[in-house]
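Hey, I'm writing a tutorial for new members on how sequence and structure tokens pair up, and I'd like a real worked example in the thread rather than a made-up one. If someone can provide the structure for the chain below, I'll link this post from the tutorial.
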Amino acid sequence: MNTLHNVKRWVKTTRHPLGAAIRGLHTGWREFEVPALSPVYKPLRLLHQALNQLASETARILYWTPMFRTRLRHGPQGLGNQLYLFGGMPLVQGNLIIEMGRHCRLSGQTTFSGRWRSEQTRC
């Protein structure tokens, strides 16, 4: 048996005062909380949310949408069709022809599945 495992088991099961003290320290450390001071953490949360949204929108505009457009029938040229792809890249399985109209909104959680045996399936 591992020595650390033996120590853990001893601390959990012993009635020795040292074991009880270690259990108390562990419980206190595990339940320790820092007070959420509104003047400090509210601006920090707002900054975090703004940076997170900025990174998400940048990835959507510069990475995910152009990458998915290469999978469309008319290829990546298609500027002006206002495709709004959010939440990542849709999963495309099989040999599909995908056409999208103008002002389409598509989730990255979407799955397109085509038959593997057919030559091309139109979607």
